[in-house]
Amino acid sequence: MPELREDPEETRIEAYVAEQIRTRRKLAGLNQTELARALGISFQMIGKYENAANRLTVGRLCRIARVLGISVEELLPPDAIARSAASPPLPLGQMESGESLPPDGPGLRDMLEKVELVQKFSAIDSARARRLLISVAETFGPSTE
């Protein structure tokens, strides 16, 4: 298994997001306790997010943006968004290092299909088309598999 290394680009993005959360919270006139209460978490966790000491989940990032009344994109560095949109997705099963993922494993194919679906969905420019796809997916309901 390849050794996991800190990616300087990810570290830069996380620091930017942390600073944006702090700045946008203050612009919204909220202190850490008020933002934490709105999110249902501790004010200490907000401090950790604002200092990039804890990594955010995508869901938590979305909730923070919603509470602050902004889009998630406003919390991300513009160059990271542009670079991500311009980069072609990696072939299914390939890591950024060029190495292939292990061929076996429970649910690996399922996980890779989900990653591919998210990559393709993220590349759709039209908000209307994305909403339409979400409503189509909702018609399938929770999986009974």
From TrEMBL:
SMART domains xref list: HTH_XRE
InterPro entries in the record: Cro/C1-type_HTH (IPR001387), Lambda_DNA-bd_dom_sf (IPR010982), TransReg_Diox_bact_type (IPR050807)
Keyword tags: DNA-binding, Transcription, Transcription regulation
Residues covered by region (Disordered): 86-108
Pfam families: HTH_3
Occurrences of domain HTH cro/C1-type (ranges): 21-75
Keyword flag Transcription regulation: yes
GO cellular component, one term: cytosol
One term of GO molecular function: DNA-binding transcription factor activity
Record has Ligase as a keyword: no
Protein name: Transcriptional regulator, contains XRE-family HTH domain
Source organism of the structure: Faunimonas pinastri
